Automatic annotation (TrEMBL):
This is Phosphatidylglycerophosphatase. The chain crosses the membrane at residues 7-34, 40-59, 79-106, 126-149. Keywords: Membrane, Transmembrane, Transmembrane helix. Residues 8-144 form the YutG/PgpA domain. The keyword Transferase does not apply. One of its GO terms (molecular function) is phosphatidylglycerophosphatase activity. SUPFAM superfamilies: YutG-like. Signal peptide: none annotated. GO terms for biological process: lipid metabolic process. The keyword Transferase does not apply. It comes from Hydrobacter penzbergensis. InterPro entries: PgpA, PgpA-like_sf, YutG/PgpA.
Length: 150
């Protein structure tokens, strides 16, 4: 049975598609770039990211009962990680693309203790590795900005 939790966790079905995590991250990057977040300011982006992280944690916990621990169908975590990646970064095409590449790298490879966060209980474990991957990606983007590499 499809529930609201499953719809949100799978980002309206993206999680059922092969490569759903990458698709969810790419769509998040596109939405971030193409919507008023471009001109709304950093506060709006922060509010969006916080809402996605907490909503994602809740729905990931709820769907775990039916889908198991950290199911590939749950892609709201990629959305959250991508939001964190783009926080406080100018919404310009090359920054968004670089953020997507960095986030997917950290999310897939899981270096620097990212994998350990998956052991947190319930939805926290599902979301934490992506949030930390987003933080690492954001820090690298901040260095790119600092050194004016783009």
């Amino acid at each position: 049975m499809i529930t609201i939790s499953k719809l949100v966790a799978s980002c309206f079905g993206i999680g059922y598609v092969r490569g759903g995590g990458t698709i969810a991250a790419a769509l998040t990057a596109a939405v971030w770039y193409l919507t008023p977040l471009k001109t709304a300011g950093y506060t709006t982006g922060l509010i969006v990211a916080v809402i996605v992280v907490f909503a994602g944690t809740w729905v990931a916990s709820k769907t775990e009962k039916d889908w198991g621990k950290d199911s590939s169908r749950v892609v709201i975590d990629e959305v959250a990680g991508m939001c964190v990646t783009l926080l406080f970064v100018p919404v310009k095409f090359w920054y968004v693309i670089a953020g997507l590449i960095l986030f997917r790298f950290f999310d897939i490879v899981k270096p620097l203790l990212i994998r350990k966060t998956e052991s947190l209980p319930g939805g926290w474990g599902v979301m934490a590795d992506d949030v930390v991957a987003g933080i690492y990606s954001n820090l690298l983007l901040q260095l790119v900005l600092w050194f004016n590499l783009f």
